């Protein structure tokens, strides 16, 4: 395709395989993968089985598939949190996974967590200070920002996390299911922010079970099923095929 040749590739996923090895007593094996029991009592879950695609700048790519199909594993492998057992991921810059959750502390105020989350995402202290007002405003938590995070509802926590992570332009941003937690109005605002990041030459991956969010945000969709990429193409085509598959299986 001539048009494709002119776009700058930012992520190349090449024949990516991820296998999790879990002790049989472990809790990590999900219902959809077929665990293989080895003689030593270790199960292997083949979560990604040779997934390949190229993502270009200015694309926003939806990642869909039923529970346990490998979506989060793919995102974690793209940011380097989960090592591939085969194949490779190449990226023009480090992808950022939106989900500063692990870094935030429930006993600290929203205010302190903005600093903590910002640092965890690699922002400089001065950048966080400059972005503070914008983050509070986007999260709409002005009246609650001095309270400990444990007093926030899950939707309020999700809003703060999204506001921190989306406060800066990212070259490659991965949003894993974050949008489904806030209310309708916040979802619409976050979708708008994702489109803005994409329009400013970023590439956005959105993992979601909400086909409305996917349709509203993405121009291309990757559909995973049991660790394999079954379809990669324009949003409407892939979502329609996925919904048909779900209604018949
Ligand atoms: N840390 C882990 N250890 C062992 N197995 C894992 C681990 N993480 C995921 N898996 C398994 O890998 C498979 C893919 O899981 P993954 O979380 O990538 O799916 P997903 O498509 O993101 O699912 P969901 O829609 O439910 O979030 C599942 O069978 C799951 O049980």
From TrEMBL:
Which InterPro entries is this protein grouped with? AAA+_ATPase (IPR003593), ABC_transporter-like_ATP-bd (IPR003439), ABC_transporter-like_CS (IPR017871), ABC_transpr_TagH-like (IPR015860), Bact_Polysacc_Export_ATP-bd (IPR050683), P-loop_NTPase (IPR027417)
Q: Which CDD domains match?
A: ABC_KpsT_Wzt
Q: A GO CC term?
A: membrane
What keywords is this UniProt entry annotated with? ATP-binding, Nucleotide-binding, Transport
Highest taxon listed in the record's lineage: Bacteria
Q: Which family does it belong to?
A: Belongs to the ABC transporter superfamily.
Q: What is this protein called?
A: Teichoic acid transport system ATP-binding protein
């Amino acid at each position: 395709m001539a048009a494709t040749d002119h776009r700058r590739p930012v992520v190349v996923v090449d024949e990516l395989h991820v296998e999790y090895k879990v002790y049989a007593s472990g809790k990590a094996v999900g219902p959809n993968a077929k665990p293989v029991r080895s003689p030593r009592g270790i199960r292997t879950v083949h979560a990604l089985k040779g997934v390949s695609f190229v993502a270009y700048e200015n694309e926003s790519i939806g990642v869909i598939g039923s529970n346990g199909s490998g979506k989060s594993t793919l995102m974690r492998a793209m940011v380097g949190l989960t090592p591939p057992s085969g194949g490779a991921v190449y990226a023009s810059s480090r992808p950022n996974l939106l989900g500063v959750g692990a870094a935030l502390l429930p006993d600290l105020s929203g205010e302190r967590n903005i600093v903590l989350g910002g640092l965890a995402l690699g922002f400089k202290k001065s950048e966080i200070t400059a972005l503070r007002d914008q983050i509070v405003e986007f999260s709409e938590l002005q009246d609650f920002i001095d309270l400990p995070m444990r007093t926030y509802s899950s939707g309020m926590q999700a809003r703060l996390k999204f506001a921190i992570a989306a406060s800066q332009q990212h070259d490659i941003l991965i949003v894993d299911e974050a949008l489904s937690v806030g209310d309708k109005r916040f979802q619409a605002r976050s979708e708008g922010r994702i489109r803005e990041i994409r329009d400013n030459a970023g590439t956005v991956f959105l993992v979601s079970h909400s086909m409305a969010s996917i349709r509203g945000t993405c121009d291309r969709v990757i559909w995973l099923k049991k660790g394999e990429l079954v379809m990669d193409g324009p949003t409407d085509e892939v979502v329609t095929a996925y919904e048909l598959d779900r209604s018949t299986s």
